[in-house]
Amino acid sequence: MERAARLHFLEHGQEVHEDESGGGSGGERAKVYPYHTYGTKAGLLRSRLLKSSIPLYECHSGCSCSSSCPNRVVERGRTIPLQIFRTKNRGWGVRCTEPIKQGQFVDCYLGEVITAEEADRRRLKSTMSQRKDVYLFALDKFTDEYSLDPRLKGPPLEVDGEFMSGPTRFINHSCDPNLRIFARVGDHADKHLHDLALFAIRDIAREEELTFDYVNGNAAESSDIAPNSESMTVCLCGSKNCRKYLW
């Protein structure tokens, strides 16, 4: 009987059955990393994770491995050149001057780490609160009101990339994106302060604009929304499956 393919990505060091290249086979127990470790796909995120919401656990200072460990992709930082350019109708955008492979790490979303209270204060202070939300990302992947760790009970910290950030601050939204954000835990191993790592979810051509879904597909369908230009943010991504509004 053919066994069902399974991938349970757990904390680093735990063991699971692995059936992709680079892991064990025939019932062996193997440590599973989120990345391929051998061959032409080495360093690329495993295909099963590309459309998942599973967090990525990388090695850190508490591990016995070296800095060359294949499970330190995000830790090593961006390895591709990013270019900020002017789009036709959406302000600034970001592209890469070389092709990007499916599963390749692009960069992290960076910014000021602030409390939820400060984030709300900045939203209220902003003349366009919806525009402010474009730059705010809650570090809520592990938030759990029943957690024994008081830092994870919430409200979560937020990252504000409006004034202090890197090139990823200029990446635009698309309802049909080529990037996806993953929660990544590594060097400091603090879940309440995890990284926001951007990976390519398909092959991306040279100088193709980089995009990710700001609301991760959770926005209401356009048919369920009563258009109100004064209170809603219109989506300008132009994709065939555009949801018309961001929020």
CATH topology of the domain at 72-219: the name is Beta-clip-like
Q: Name the CATH homologous superfamily of the domain at 72-219.
A: SET domain
Number of helices: 2
SS-derived structural category: mainly beta
Helix content: under 10%
CATH class of the domain at 72-219: Mainly Beta
Compact summary:
By secondary structure, the protein is mainly beta. The protein has a domain of 148 residues: Beta Complex (Beta-clip-like), CATH 2.170.270.10.
Task: Please describe the structure with a list of short key phrases separated by commas or semicolons.
single chain; 247 residues; mainly beta; Beta-clip-like; four-stranded mixed sheet; 2 helices; globular; disordered N terminus; SET_dom; transferase; chromosome; metal-binding; Post-SET_dom
